[in-house]
Amino acid sequence: MRHIEACRISLLLLLIFSIGCSHKEGTLQTITHAQFKSFVDETHYITDAEKFGWSFVQEDVYNFRVVQDATWRLPDGQSPPASPQLPVTQVSYNDAIAYCQWAKVSLPTYQDYWEYIQTDSRKVVSENNAPISEVDKVNVLGNVWDITQTTLGDSTRLAGGSLFCSKYSCHGTVKERELYVDKQTGNIHIGFSVIVYPKK
Known about the structure:
The protein has helices at residues 2-22, 33-43, 48-52, 93-103, 110-116; strands at 27-30, 54-58, 64-68, 145-152, 155-159, 180-182, 190-196. It contains 5 helices and 7 strands.
């Protein structure tokens, strides 16, 4: 009897452990322009692009310009985002970490990112099938590149893909691609998403 009971306990513990390992708590949410503005309004944080006075504006996969005054406030250097619900861009890894510390959330690792998006069935913005879109209407995958916690030296690994990426360029929006940028780099097609856990 003791042997049978011990087996039952072992099986129960194994089941609990398996559920805990296979179930990802929380959700992955792309940070909007409005959310980042709340952070800046409260903390008076200055982004890397604002410190430099310029940033990169991507025209397509292969061509970009260095644009004066391109920041999260004016991603193309001239105009604010058309909607506060668009993903914040022109932010760096350093800026994303500062936001996470303020909001008490965390950046996903590269592996986390791909695990979380498995359940996102919304439209993927890529292959120029739509402009950068409001975050609640489209898949986290695509739209803009996502900064992750996964780093290599002074660089961060980008996940997902931008609206420009297709199977013929950027290798589409696939997990196997490796793309790193330095921790100070901003771009009109780079933003970030965070892990948000349910309130208990």
